[in-house]
TrEMBL record:
Its EC number is 3.2.1.68. It comes from the Bacteria. Residues 525-540 have a biased composition (Basic and acidic residues). This is Isoamylase.
Length: 762
């Protein structure tokens, strides 16, 4: 516990340590452990982290380098195998090696004989003065921010906190230093082999799917594979499970071109979840930006997870599927001032985090307690080094940045000329991969949809809202829907951006599944243990007349039709569609719209749904429409529509029609409407193929009808078409493979209630 002098200081309202004698090194398990016999050579300040290599005179060993700007000294701590120590909590003998070389605020040293598989951490010495943001505490073993692998779990007992977590006066608890050793209770970094450069990740070995041709599938490594009956049980829930042919077969049959993996950086579980016997399932609580999360490894956690992850990427690439990582560089698992001391806080709290004018407190643009100070050069270096590592050494093809607006802030405001965005734009590795922004954070001015620079694509929540509202009958008119279906030119037609700047989605991991979107209007998050207070109340959902599951055949049929409508609308829209794993199977979370802590059947995909003819038909429709999208460039345009006639017959690349078969007027856009016709001309597609030949395609008419009764729709006549062939009709459970019914131009057809009809123009 803290010293009596420190306790007295707190009671008197002054900082512990002010005017007190220097604090001695903590006593660990009864006596300090030092190993003066371990040789430490000067080594090098770069690269950061632990790198196994050949040193002077051909001696192999590991170079350790840690940026710790304001620290007074740094100790490298090496750990033996569990069970070989005396009284060390089963964590192995700890050998502490001082790093005495200091170059540009980087502490470094080369330790001969240290090989891959060695577990290690750091103890960093410095002042304890939370009032000024200084939170050094050498009693706490710290994870290397550059660790390539992590062994062990974060369990967060009191010893893991730099302050006395259970101090009676909680308002000042963060100021009272806890001198208990945390080493027995925290994971360790692991030295890994650096693979020799090879050609596995060169561009000609990657799928390199153009943005306009991409179909993204957001999935959770564990949840996607945990219940799959054709994946061996020992591989379920792991990277190896996702690499299994049974998992990849589903992806290829569906036709997606990229998987977007929920966070796979090493993450920790929050204290409030652990106290309730729960864990963070989604993983948006990163603590190791170079390490694949060890909990998803089937092969081992002392470096084997690195090779397993690479093998997964290779298997997906071989199937033509890109790998995009959902990354969380905006905050870390150390939370606010009452959070644990795991890594950056103990290395240099003031150097890594944004602090308020009251330096005890953290600036929180993320809602998670802290925000990384990306303006600082060493923080920016940490992030960009991590990104390049995952591209060049782990083989990934892109990133989706959680709360990207927090990364784009300069000192306070979101700034599209911020250091982070500027560095990404000029980086020869990063500017060539797929970059997706979640274009908001929780701070003032944080909503930035449409504002990111041309290199970026963005999650478009305005697309989500408009499509949900149209199909539940809540749009006052169809103006917004027209923009969203045609690529959101109102948001992205500037600065050279293209329609694929818009990542279109109806659902994401955060919120209702697609099936729950048509089955529930209210969240049902009781299982989370937070009194149903968590999760959004703005669901824009319609339960089709009954809340929750029902045996009513009419309601069940209507819900399946709504699912077909939502999926078909998404896949026919201009932009990049993103599906959520399991939506094509009718996956449900029982109305839980915030299942971040549900590592169980609530979140895992139920593969038995494929055995149900109703849900198998939904999968077949989804695959059919994705195949249509791949086959027809008019459905995946690389440039915005002009809406102007390009020939004497008056035919335009995009035209909108009312149910009367007449082109929409300005007045029609402002009038309430449940029916909208969208004509896409395949004759007027900008661009040429690889041989310079102009791209042409079939033309299509998509009719969207959200009304609860059938409607008459007059098919446009000349010059638009001579006849129309029905390709997709979402009123039908089974689409079949035979050509559809053919209608003559000018005919009035009946569009079933709540349906999408896609007709090919002849």
């Amino acid at each position: 516990m803290s010293s009596a002098a420190e306790q007295e200081a707190v009671q008197e309202g002054r900082a512990p340590g002010a005017g007190l004698p220097a604090q001695p090194a903590p006593v660990l398990n009864g006596s300090p452990r030092v190993a003066p016999a371990v040789p430490v050579w000067p080594g090098a300040p770069t690269p950061l982290g632990a790198r196994f290599r050949t040193g002077p005179d051909g001696v192999s060993g590991t170079n350790f380098a840690l940026w710790a700007g304001g620290a007074e000294s740094v100790e490298l701590c090496l750990f033996g195998d569990a069970g070989d120590s005396e009284g060390s909590g089963g964590e192995g003998t700890e050998i502490r090696v001082p790093l005495t070389e200091l170059t540009h605020e980087i502490w470094h040293g080369f330790v001969p004989g240290v090989r891959p598989g060695q577990r290690y951490g750091f103890r960093v010495h410095g002042r304890w003065d939370p009032w000024t943001g200084a939170r050094w505490n050498p009693a706490k073993l710290l994870l290397d921010p550059y660790a390539r692998a992590v062994d062990g779990d974060f369990t967060l007992p009191p010893e893991v906190y730099g302050h006395v977590r259970d101090w009676p006066q909680q308002q000042v608890a963060d100021t009272v230093r806890d001198d208990r050793d945390s080493a027995p209770y925290v994971p360790k970094g692991v030295v890994v082999h650096d693979d020799a450069p090879d050609d596995e990740w060169t561009d000609d070995r990657r799928p390199k799917t153009p943005w306009a041709d991409s179909v993204i599938y957001e999935l959770h490594v564990r949840g996607f594979t945990k219940l799959h009956p054709d994946i061996p049980e020992e591989l379920r829930g792991t990277y190896a499970g996702l690499a299994h042919p049974a998992a990849i077969e589903h992806l290829t049959r569906l036709g997606v071109t990229a998987v977007e993996l929920l966070p796979v950086h090493q993450f920790a579980h929050e204290d409030h979840l652990l106290r309730r016997g729960m864990k963070n399932y989604w993983g948006y609580n990163s603590i190791g930006y170079f390490a694949p999360h060890a909990g998803y490894a089937a092969s081992g956690t002392t470096g084997q997870q690195v090779g397993e992850f690479k093998s997964m990427v290779r298997a997906l690439h071989a199937a033509g599927i890109e790998v995009i990582l959902d990354v969380v560089y905006n905050h870390t698992a150390e939370a606010g001032e009452l959070g644990p001391t795991l890594s950056l806080r103990g290395i240099d709290n003031r150097g890594y985090y944004r602090l308020q004018s009251d330096a005890r407190r953290y600036t929180d643009y993320t809602g998670c307690g802290n925000t990384l100070h990306v303006v600082q050069p060493h923080v920016l270096r940490l992030i960009t080094d991590s990104l390049r590592y995952w591209v060049t050494e782990m083989g990934v093809d892109g990133f989706r940045f959680d709360l990207a607006a927090a990364l784009a802030r300069s000192m306070h405001d979101v700034d599209m000329l911020s250091p982070f965005l500027a560095v990404i734009a000029q980086d020869p590795v990063l500017r060539r991969v797929k970059l997706i922004a979640e274009p908001w954070d929780v701070g003032s001015g944080g909503y930035q949809v449409g504002a990111f620079p041309p290199l970026w694509t963005e999650w478009n929540d305005r697309y989500r809202n408009a499509v949900r509202d149209f199909w539940r009958g809540a749009l006052p008119d169809v103006r917004d829907l027209g923009y969203r279906l045609s690529g959101s030119s109102d948001l992205y037609a500037w600065g050279g951006r293209r329609p694929y700047a818009s990542v279109n989605f109806v659902t994401a991991h955060d919120g209702f599944t697609l099936r729950d979107l048509v089955s529930y209007e209210r969240k049902h998050n009781e299982a989370n243990g937070e009194g149903n207070r968590d999760g959004t109340d703005d669901n824009r959902a319609w339960n089709c007349g009954t809340e929750g599951e029902t045996e009513d055949a009419r309601v069940r049929g209507l819900r399946r039709r709504q699912l077909r409508n939502l999926l078909t609308t998404l896949l026919l829209s201009t932009g990049v569609p993103m599906l959520v794993a399991g939506d094509e199977l009718g996956r449900t979370q029982g109305g839980n719209n915030n299942a971040y802590c549900q590592d169980n059947e609530i979140s895992w995909i139920d593969w038995t749904l494929l055995d149900d003819p109703d849900w198998r038909a939904l999968f077949d429709l989804t695959a059919r429409v994705i195949a249509l999208r791949h086959a027809h460039p008019v459905l995946r345009r690389r440039a915005f529509f002009s809406g102007r006639a390009h020939s004497a017959d008056g035919l335009r690349d995009l035209a909108w029609f009312t149910a009367r078969g007449a082109e929409m007027t300005e007045r029609d856009w402002y009038a309430p409407a449940a029916t909208l016709g969208m004509y896409l001309s395949g004759r007027d597609i900008p661009g040429r193929d690889a041989r310079g030949v102009p791209v042409t395609d079939d033309s299509f008419l998509a009719v969207l009808h959200a009304g609860d009764r059938p409607a008459s729709f007059v098919l446009p006549g000349a010059p638009w078409a001579d006849h129309y062939e029905v390709v997709v009709d979402t009123s039908q459970e089974e689409q079949g493979d035979t050509p559809g019914v053919v209608h003559r131009a000018g005919a009035a057809i009946t569009v079933p209630a709540r349906a999408v009809m896609l007709l090919k123009v002849g």
